[in-house]
Amino acid sequence: MTMLKVVSPRVGEPGTEFVPDEHTNVEALIAGGFIVDDTRTKKPAKNTNTNEEI
Amino acid sequence: MATSTYLPSPGVKINNVDVSDQCQGAVITQVQTALNSSSFGSTDSFYVTGMTNHTIELEMYMSYAATETYATLAALVGTQTTVILATTATALTTPSATAPKFTLTNCYLEELPLINATMGELSVISLTFQGGTLTTATS
């Protein structure tokens, strides 16, 4: 799931999640440096399954 | 003497970006295109309403710094976007009957002046957003 984060105070409080409405051009906001797509910076969950066969 | 006047200091948002501090002129015009419905036997002209064609015209100081005018607009040329014009900066978030907020959704930006330079003057660009759906918020 996409996680957008505010960078510029022009669109909200920096560091908070940015929730666009259906008419917002998200690509333009990312291109302009107003928000970032934080999805890729999140670490994947650890695999806690210990029952895997080797 | 006018009993009530309006000293303008509107709030302006383009694609969710607050650009009020870069804006020095703003006009929003509600347009209902007139269709001539005059007919034989009359020497008068009559009109009925056709499609809407609202416009928002903005005068903005040009800046190429991060998250300023150029960064806001560069990716919007040739696309539909949303522009909000409120009678006061406060009305962007809390409009009222005496401080309404106008939103033009899916309006089209056809042109962006990339450089408008005159010796000794601050660079100002003119923008026109046209079309889209106009809504008015008073609460």
Topology:
The complex is a heterodimer of chains A (54) and B (139).
Chain A lengths: L3 E3 L19 H6 L3 E3 L17
Antiparallel strand pairs in A: 1-2
Chain B lengths: L10 E4 L2 E2 L4 E7 L2 E5 L10 E6 L2 E7 L7 H5 L6 E7 L14 E9 L14 E7 L2 E5 L2
Antiparallel strand pairs in B: 1-2, 1-7, 3-6, 4-5, 6-9, 7-8, 8-9, 8-10
Looking at this protein, list some descriptive labels.
heterodimer; A: 54 residues; little secondary structure; two-stranded antiparallel sheet; 1 helix; B: 139 residues; mainly beta; 8-stranded antiparallel β-sheet
Outline the structure in words.
The complex is a heterodimer of chains A (54) and B (139). Chain A is built from 1 helix and 2 strands, in the order βαβ. Chain A is largely without helices or strands and 54 residues long. Chain A has a domain at 4-37. Chain A has a two-stranded antiparallel sheet. The model of chain A has no long low-confidence stretch (mean pLDDT 84). Chain B is mostly beta strands. Chain B has a single domain, classed as Pnp Oxidase, Chain A. In chain B, 4% of the residues lie in helices and 42% in strands. Chain B contains 1 helix and 10 strands, in the order ββββββαββββ. In chain B, the strands form 2 sheets. In chain B, strands 1, 2, 3, 6, 7, 8, 9 and 10 form an 8-stranded antiparallel sheet that branches. The longest helix of chain B is centred in the middle third of the chain and has 5 residues, at 69-73. Chain B is globular. The interface between A and B is medium-sized, with 16 and 17 residues.
Task: Assign the CATH topology of chain B.
Answer: Pnp Oxidase, Chain A
Q: Going across the biggest sheet of chain A, name each strand in turn.
A: 1-2
Question: Averaged pLDDT of chain B, please?
Answer: 97
Mean pLDDT of chain A: 84
Biggest sheet features of chain A:
2 strands, antiparallel
In whole angstroms, how far apart are the ends of chain A?
31 Å
Question: What is the alpha-carbon Rg of chain B in Å?
Answer: 18 Å
Number of helices of chain A: 1
Strand content of chain A: 5-15%
Tell me what portion of residues of chain B adopts beta-strand conformation.
Answer: 35-45%
